Structure to design on (119 residues):
């Protein structure tokens, strides 16, 4: 049951990522005072960490979660390349894979720790 829920949640998360990728930039909607150079890589990693965590819960393994991050990241950048004001960036894909892997590893660690029980 957990795996079916996780696959469904991952699919919804991917749809949300693609919806974000389809939105043109501009208008200053994301101009916050805390912004810094290349901060979008942290955003990518954070969003894909959630995807990696969900895919780890669904598949039971880290490698498919990391591969899913790569595949979705490549598709995401392809979508962005066709949206006015957006462009594809291979560094974004790297941030996506790093984030997905980190999310998957965090879930693996948490599940192992929970299985050991309280100390």
């Amino acid at each position: 049951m957990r795996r079916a829920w996780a696959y469904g949640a991952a699919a919804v998360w991917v749809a949300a990522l693609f919806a974000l990728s389809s939105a043109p930039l501009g208008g200053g909607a994301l101009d916050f005072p805390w912004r810094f150079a290349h901060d979008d890589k942290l955003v990518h990693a954070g969003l894909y960490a959630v995807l990696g965590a969900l895919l780890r819960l669904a598949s039971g393994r880290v490698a498919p979660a990391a591969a899913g991050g790569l595949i979705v990241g490549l598709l995401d950048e392809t979508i962005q390349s066709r949206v006015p004001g957006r462009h594809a960036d291979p560094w974004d894909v790297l941030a996506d894979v790093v984030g997905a892997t980190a999310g998957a590893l965090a879930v693996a660690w948490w599940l192992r720790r929970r299985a050991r029980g309280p100390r």
Q: What stands out?
A: The chain has a mean pLDDT of 88. The helical segments are 2-22, 39-59, 62-81, 90-116. DSSP finds four helices and no strands in the chain.
